[in-house]
Amino acid sequence: MQPVEDQSVSPARRRKGLPRSLQEGQDPDPRFTLANERTFLAWIRTSLALLAGGIAVEAFTQDIFDETARKVLGTTLLVLGGILAASAAGRWLRVEAAMRQKRSLPIPLWVPLIALVCAVAAATVLIAIWVTNGF
Amino acid sequence: MDSKRPRGLPRRRLGPQHADPGLQPERTVMSWGRTGLATSVVALLLIRWYPSVGPVVFVPVAVAIVGAGLIQVSQRRRYRVQAAGIHYEKVVADFRAVVWMTVMAVSIAGLGVIGVWVF
């Protein structure tokens, strides 16, 4: 008789400071865990790029935009960068949990939203430049 | 692959050899390195706010610099843990690093918004 493998978390295997969803189920292939980490990092760098964009708008566009346009645009990029960073962490956790439970991976639903906000922001900048400087 | 030694992982001092043709530890560590560099760029750009915001700008700059520094300082350890993890077929998801990276990015965003509207 083969002993049935207990898949629940035994107290001995418990790791301090790890959320439950990262302890339940079975350890995935370590390559997948590292791939998930790299995907998270790629999103974080995207978030940092948006932050850098927001900071640059505030720092370098004094002569191009009036104050309100500059502040709104800078804030949009900064907030978007913040949201992106937070969602990246959420997704990392959900993907890792899904791999442990051998479920299919969740779809990143915020991607279309981010694309839309970026497109709107880019169009706004273009129009703002045309309006203030002519064609 | 032998399957002893998970738990605390590393043992060998001279960089454990792993047999992963996909070079996962290298790629992951370099990915962290790029993220650290991107963080430094954010910090340096922020210094440009000094004329309008004043010395307070060094709060988010310090957050970013410390974050970038911590990444670089932990790179060797990260490689060792991940290479050993591939060798023993077990890598514990690096929850702490993910959380701190996220906290850093979100707080830079928050401090940036405060900087735009308050100062």
Could you explain how this protein is built, in words?
The complex is a heterodimer of chains A (135) and B (119). In chain A, α1 (30-60) packs antiparallel against α2 (67-100) and α2 (67-100) packs antiparallel against α3 (110-133). Chain A starts with 29 loop residues before the first helix and ends with a helix. Chain A is mainly α. Chain A is built from three helices and no strands. Chain B has helices at 24-47, 50-53, 58-73, 75-88, 95-118. The longest helix of chain B is centred in the N-terminal third of the chain and has 24 residues, at 24-47. Helix content of chain B is 69%, strand content 0%. Chain B is mostly helical. Chain B has one domain (24-118). Chain B is built from five helices and no strands.
Order of helices and strands of chain B: HHHHH
Tally of individual domains of chain B:
1
The count of helical stretches of chain A stands at 3
Structural class determined from secondary elements of chain B: mainly alpha
Low-confidence stretches of chain B: none
Counting helices, strands and paired strands, the structural category of chain A is mainly alpha
Whole-number count of domains of chain A: 1
The helix/strand series of chain A, from N terminus to C terminus, equals HHH
Supply the number of helical segments of chain B.
5
Q: Which percent band covers the strand fraction of chain A?
A: under 5%
Helix content of chain A: 55-70%
Number of strands of chain B: 0
Largest sheet of chain B: none
Cα shape of chain B: elongated
Portion in beta strands of chain B: under 5%
> Which regions of chain A contain 5 or more consecutive residues with pLDDT less than 50?
4-12
Distance between the termini of chain A: 81 Å
Radius of gyration of chain A: 22 Å
Radius of gyration of chain B: 18 Å
What is the number of strand segments of chain A?
0
